[in-house]
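Milestone M4 deliverable, item 7.
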Amino acid sequence: NLSGTLPELAAEAAIRGLMAVRGAGNVSSIPATDSLYAIMFGGKRVVLKLNPVNEYLFPVFERIFAPLINANLLIILKGGVEVGEALVNHPAVDSVHITGSAATHDVVVWGSTPDERAQRKHNHDPLLKKTITSELGNVTPWIIAPAEYTTRELESQAQHVAVSITNNVSFNCLATKVIVTWKNWPQRALFLQRVQYHLSRTPTRYAYYPGAAQRHERFSGQPSSMDDKGHLPWVLLIDQSIDDRPELFEEESFVCVCAETALSADSPEQFLAVATDFVNERMPGTLCASVSLTPKFRKQHAHEFEQCLAGLRYGTVCVNQWSGIAYGMISPPWGAYPGSNLLDVKSGIGFVHNSYLLDRVEKSILEGPLVNFPPPVWFPDHKNAAGVANALIHLYERPSVLRLPRLGWAAVRGFCLLLGVLLAWGSAVQAAEKETAKPAEFQATTHTIQATGKAQFELQAALINAVPGDVIELAAGKYDFTSELNVVCDNVTLRGAGRDKTVINFKKQSAGSSGLLATGNAFVIEGLTIQDTVGSGIKVLGAQDVIFRDVKVEWTEGEKSTNGAYGIYPVECKNVLIENCVSIGASDAGIYVGQSQDVIVRGCLATRNVTGIEIENTLRADVYDNVATDNTGGIMVFDLPGLNLVNGGYVRVYKNNVKDNNHANFAPLGTVVADVPPGTGVMILAMDNVEVFDNDITGHLTNNVMILSYLIVERKDLDKKFDPYPEVISIHDNRISGGGKKPSGKISMALLPIAGGKFPDIFYDGILNPSPSPEVQKLGKYSIRIRDNGDATFANMDVANLSPENLVTGKYKLDRDIKNYNAEIPSLPPITLKPHGKASSLGNPAVAVYRAAPKQLSKWGFYEKKDGRLVPAADFIWYELNTPLFSDYTIKHRYVRLPKGAQIEWNETDSLEFPVGTVIVKTFGYPDETDDLTPGEKFIETRVEFREASGWYGYSYVWNAEQTDATLNLGGGELDVAWKAADGTQHTHKYQIPNANQCLSCHSSNGKYVPIGTTARNLNRPGMGLDAENQLTNWVNRGVLKDCPSPEKRPVLANYLDPHTGSLDARARAWLEVNCAHCHNPTGSARTSGLDLRSVQTDPGRYGVFKSPVAAGKGSGGRSYDIVPGKPDESILMFRLETQEPGSKMPSLARNLVHDESNELLREWILAMPSDHKSVKE
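Output delivered:
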């Protein structure tokens, strides 16, 4: 009832003038509240022009606002653009309020054409010269702090986010458009699954706003999927990059599409700062944002959170709540963050709500609980939302105390219904947990494995089912294992009873190329011994936060070239500690750190290896308090070409005892360390910024310290980014003696006469960088500094100028004067390692997937019985490949099942992008004449790959003898199989089934599971049962593949056996891509080798031509290069494909037979290669 205040308002309005309000079309309350605020708090008379989208409100508003209209405080208009333009330019109007987009604002304020707007902005000459306020668009972010949430907390926040996406069909400037998470947040996958779940439970609505279908298609990246009712699906795009899809972050989509992006940060607390900077600097809009976090996280990181709240440049910031709640409260100030102007309007100028007339407000902050109780009526899961809404409308229509009970009963009834559903859901969860015998929260626990015959299976099962924080203890005793162990979960500790008490022996190993392969972050292994692996002892790939403690790796049958390459082997890791460890008998390096960052190696013993300790292509490492003795070389600090981390450096070697490393070199020929001469103490090869000090380096027959350029090894595999020259090297305050008495090795023997029959203690080859960096130039001609090393002798061999001509003419001179190098270089800083982060209790989504997996294949409904045989279900799409993966001559059946109505997205180079809910099924079998449900063959194994919102997952089922069903097999194993080939030859062999963790060994790209083989170029062929029709064309016609180019523009991979499909080069490269490139690519699990076998790789050096091996060990087969043109027998590639020796054969998993047909093709390909490094083109 405004009757008492209307005269006062009218008097005020007469003084303050007339405002034109251009009403919003998306939310009916916006034009009403904008007008009321201008009248009641701004003292204005208002002319409200309704948006054509909601002109239907005209009679409603006339009735509601009749007192204001009758008092001449409000006029309501209808009409299109012409009416709006005439209104804002009317001479009686002295101020204008604009709602809509920033683009609409600029048209009104600066002009209708781009040229006019640009010119006027340049001249600071707006077309509309009136007081202007506005509330405009916003790409609204929701930042999820990487706390450890309970299930209930995570569920509630997922509901809030889903509501913020779906409210009003997402036609809201405050609808969440980007979810911002931390890439390493353990609960990220689970959270996104729950958001996806709540989206799926929210009914779609009529997409009423103009242009919705077109915007949905553009921003979702999918063809328009509007149904006959005009509804559009909710779309959540996971793991989006602003560089790949800038429109998702830089434009307001104004449609039901939301993106999630995962940002990198060093820690959870640093993530808050990174996320704040990201949304402030990379995303337009200043209207509103939300942040989720737990009370515990807020308490632990109070300073960082307060900085986040203060730093977010948004007019409203909500904590644990959707910003729509702040808008709906009306009284708090609502508007864009202050500071915008007409030239750069962002989300608007001024406030539209500010009932308390607060002055100089920067932002409103609304905080709420993590879990709202009872559940809000706007949650889609609310069971009586309609009843509560109806009761509220009746109460507003005719306020009465008598109507309150109806509203209360509706709310209580909705809560009771929801409670019943939650209790039922809880009972179902408890039943599932009882079946799997696992705790509901997947809490970390300690597992104990005893040294029994089942230990290998029990240990691998524990590793597969591990959750972050798990400790797996191996009791004292000897364990005999035959297959590689795999760790993929984060924050796992594998602990024995002591280095010499728990012994795992791999002497009979037949599967895998390492004893243990770990890829999870925060991995700790301690108190045990690994023996006699076919390859490296313990390999940790691409992990952050790694500890090797009190571990021994040894080969017990003496020093042989067939021993594994490395004992302890972290590669591409960060924050690594190796302490109190022992390595004996490695055919390359006992302790090897490759392509890693921030490393400490201390208190270790390396003996009877080719090299004791090797730091290769690594940044920032401290090596101290170690003993290296009776190796070929003691401590090696190397940079090698062709690797992902191109140039290492900043390595300190100090307080070590490096003595009597004179062991015969037993490295396989062809490896870099095969060139290390026996009797080498410390060798620095090609690396910059190395400091060697306070060591005892004694008794080395070749020499105690070598400083070498990579050029001296005379290999052909240099790349442009690689720096082969050692620079800024400091050798000081060491105790060096007894070196050079009996040099050996090819280079040493060639230089021995020049050195006068005895090598110096410190040998420098003198090869200089022709283009040194400014830092090096400051140090003079030589950036090598050698001082205070007692009576150590020295020689600069000046190898670059060593030639017969210079010797004869006297131009060559051996430099033995150490005074030229006796100066100081500033000491390198020490390495400080960070403590491991706390493990999350919900951090391994794969475990939840494995535990939920049907135990029998039949539960999936993949096969059905028809005419006495098993056939794929009708909703499967059968597909074939141009060149398939070789799997020991198995027959393969490949199918894909898509969610109803979903589509596959085209990808030109990688696997096609399958939608969430896709299942790929591959069944492997052999010819068989038994009369059963699989006539003509015997099914052995079915591998299932399926895509969740959090990514792909996969595991295997093993078929029973009756061929009626298959049983889930997460632990892998071997089967004895017998089969008869087409020529009548009988075959028997062992067939390998990978364990669930091993799947990632091949199906890995940047640590994420990806399908193999399903690239457009490999699928571009006639399909099974399609006669001559191309299967990609068939998929397009069926509406399941989108954005597929016309047939002539599609890439195609050759059939390796069919010369009609491509040249010799194309067919050989096709086979290598399918069978090798899933690992050997820049993001695969063999990326550290630098070998890229994708068919799209055009650099011969990158796909192996004259490329030296990295970490191959005995896998080099005594050869020097992966591919030697014209010489297949000298090529490592052919050796590894033709051998069946574990640790050398490739692929290392799932191959026990040699593929004769492909090897014949590859031999022909190498023979035909010209010697100029280029592959043959026919």
